[in-house]
Design a protein that fits this description.
The protein has about 160 residues and is mainly alpha-helical. The chain has 3 domains: about 1-35; about 50-120; about 125-164. It is about 90% helix and about 0% strand. It contains 4 helices and no strands. About 0% of the residues are buried.
């Protein structure tokens, strides 16, 4: 009896496996022929074969649109980068010229300092010279006044003296 039960169970398992294989094969055939899934498990995943193709096409179209937007942004970024590189080079040239001008001016300043130092100039000497110049101008002014008075006296004497 145990042998018959064991044989019955083996046949039953083989029958169940064959039934499952048949159902799976029929479902696959229906999906391939109609594009619609035969079981609820497959219909939940996007409408079978045709639904999956439609989803893939929609994703492809969306990806193509995104790719085009990214290309446009990339081209704009490349142009902007080119313009910035041109401006950067111009700034570098100007900075280089400015640096050369500064060095040239520094050399000129140093040369002028050396010339000023070689003259022996200092603030005290300048003050003394300014004071001497002021005195000389005052003396010249007094000389001019004395000369004017002298000329007037000569005119007065030549006319015969003072009129009283």
């Amino acid at each position: 009896m145990d042998a018959v039960t064991a044989e019955y169970n083996a046949v039953k398992e083989k029958h169940t496996a064959t039934q499952n294989s048949l159902a799976s094969s029929e479902d696959l055939l229906q999906t391939l022929l109609t594009g619609l899934a035969g079981t609820s498990a497959q219909s939940a995943s996007g409408g079978g074969y045709m639904g999956q193709i439609a989803d893939a096409r929609a994703r492809l179209a969306q990806a193509a649109a995104e790719e085009e937007q990214i290309r446009v942004k990339l081209d704009m970024s490349r142009r902007e980068l080119g313009e910035l590189e041109k401006r950067w080079k111009a700034v570098e040239r100007e900075a280089g010229q400015g640096e050369r001008d500064i060095k040239k001016m520094q050399v000129e300043v140093e040369t002028l300092r050396k010339k000023a130092d070689s003259t022996g100039w200092n603030e005290e000497k300048e003050h003394v010279i300014v004071e001497a110049l002021r005195k000389a101008k005052d003396d010249a002014s007094r000389c001019t006044q004395v000369r004017a008075v002298s000329c007037l006296l000569q005119v007065v004497y030549s006319m015969g003296g003072w009129a009283t």
